[in-house]
Task: structure prediction
Amino acid sequence: MTATATVMCTAAMATPPSQFYHYTDTKPFNWNPTALHPHRHHLLSRFPNHRVSVDEIRSPAKRRRRRGHGVVARAAGSERRLMDERVRRVVQVGLWVMEGVYVFWLFFLPFAPGDPVWAISSETISSLLGLSLNFFFILPAANSGTTVGFHVMEAPVLHPMSEGLFNFVIAWTLMFAPVLYTDWRRDRYTGSLDVLWGFQMFLTNTFLIPYMAIRLNEADPENSYSKPSKLGSMMINGAAVVGLTGGAVSILSILWAIYGRGDGDFGSVSERWEFLISYLGSERLAYAFIWDIVLYAVFQPWLIIDNLQNVRRSRVGIVKYLGFVPVLGLVAYLLCLDKEDEQ
Result:
């Protein structure tokens, strides 16, 4: 090989690939574009991580189209945010309207089944006290000689269908406590979550509906997250216990409604079903429980889906799908809660 040929080969090997692609415009231009177009080096400073082609560097029309796409994307994003804001306001207004309907229809107006609060009968009060005494079936179990077998006081004897319905709703209400204390929007509610949940245990959706509306408020940058109260910390740390307790009482409530007090004169399963239909159509408390079950079935997946970041990563998928199953979704959320992040 001659000396001239050796020099030519060495020069060719040292030449950057961009020099060969300068005229074809078909290869990636990612070597040193400023060597070809030093007057357009500002494009590289604007797009330092972008693999720019020669054709794109040369063509002002392509740059204008790229800028146009960016403007369209920003406009679409603004439109989506505006739409989300409108939906948020509509939902929030709908929740406040629902609260008004719930309170006036179930407490004050005489059109729903049973007596309104201003005309409540002594029989209804006696039934409500008896159901409260049989909370979670503790007193009936204590009175039973086959289980605990001690008599602090005598358990009121009520129809097992009414006892089962009452305890089912209360058990479901109990499981909402850790969800409220771990809700990422809880800072929108500036009141005490302890008080809110305490009243929810007695008046259910009378207080949960307003919370669902308030949590849709815009975040206050000056209102930072505060540490959970003692009750909140206890509910978060004991979330699994709360979930198992609530789930177990819910199942027991269904079984009790069907088979409970078998030694009493409460009839067969079909007769108990007939009593339940009659009970729902004649007692305001039972009628209100149907409203609570429907609203809980809506609020449960809403809160769970909004707070999936609180669930252990390996369990997010199953909690997401079970969240739509009444009661079971809350049990899954509480069992899979990542308590370390919440603390």
